[in-house]
Amino acid sequence: QVPLVESGGGLAQTGGSLRLVCAAPAGTLRRSIVGWFRQAPETEREFVASISWSGGRQYYADSVKDRFTISRDNFKNTVYLQMNSLTPEDTAVYYCAADIQSDWDPLRTTIEAAYEYWGQGTQVTVSS
Question: Does residue 49 surpass a pLDDT of 90?
Fold first, then answer.
């Protein structure tokens, strides 16, 4: 098991920013592709962003492109999701997930089944 823990969620105003953090025990994320997903009430969970194990490649959903940035610090075994220009449509529970087996394929990173480990989620609420 790879226990992933998300933090950094909370309440923001439209146009505001939040930074989400996905943390795991030392060494467990180092060779993993990590993705962020979100689920709004009464909707399916959807892909948000992903990052290769080296951090050199990222992939974003069209809905967040140019507003969100995914990054990682492998020394700290942590992945970040910087969210700017937030809108009420970004309100959701955000989850990070780790794929420890696959090579980088951006389209594959959008698929939930590609990930072996998931965190419990952190709530993001954006007020209008």
Answer: yes
